[in-house]
Amino acid sequence: MSLFFFAGCDTAGEPSTLRDMAEMGKGVTAGKLAINVQKRLTRAQEKVMQKLGKADETRDVAFEEMVSNFNKQMIEGSKLQKDMKSYLLAVKTMHDASRRLQDCLAEMYEPDWFGKEEMDALTEDTDTLWLDYHQNITDKSLNTLDSYLTQFPDIKARIAKRDRKMAEEELGKAQKIFEELNVELQDELPVLFDNRVGVYVNTFQGLAGHQEKFHKEMGKVRKLFRRVLLN
């Protein structure tokens, strides 16, 4: 008996067992190739997502800085508005005190004394200067601040809405609204932040100009008062 056992042959003359093994080998190789390709695709997708995530993270950091500047700007503007109102209240208090002193002087100044009519006219001029000073600061400085600060509530509400839509977007909702708000705010916030310089400059320049004019005109009136009192 032969020591070798031959498997049956198919019609092509090739041993069926060897052919089956070859086919199995091809299947294993193809399977490994598919797995390797899938792994590479997965890694590539992960890298893309990482890059996108980093880009989103960079944009979020930049936006958070804009929001931080906005909040700081809003606090500064509100404080300036509050202090300007306090200053105007002090001006009104000084005006009232000045008017009482002038009225007291007018009452004590007897009709037959020198310069009675001029004294009464100077009292009216003093009152008018105080009124104009208060009104000019209100019109040129306080109203400018008030107008400037009217922008903030709307933008603050839109920032809050953006944050809500961002949370909803993570759940697969409101993506379009979020993107629109995001673009609008990223355009508007830097412009608003830069505009604060012009507002502050105009506010304090106006205040300084009104102070200078007021004290200059008041100085002239005071000199006339002294001249009348010394004669």
Automatic annotation (TrEMBL):
PROSITE patterns: BAR
Domain of life: Eukaryota
Gene3D superfamilies (UniProt xref): Arfaptin homology (AH) domain/BAR domain (1.20.1270.60)
Main location: cytoplasm
Record keywords, A-Z: Coiled coil, Cytoplasm
GO MF annotation: an example: phospholipid binding
Location of this chain's protein in the cell: Cytoplasm
Domain called BAR: residue spans: 48-231
Coiled coil (UniProt feature): 157-184
UniProt keyword Nucleotide-binding, yes or no: no
Matching Pfam families: BAR (PF03114)
Any one of the GO CC terms: synaptic vesicle
InterPro entries: AH/BAR_dom_sf, Amphiphysin, BAR_dom
Identification of the protein by name: BAR domain-containing protein
UniProt organism field: Dissostichus mawsoni
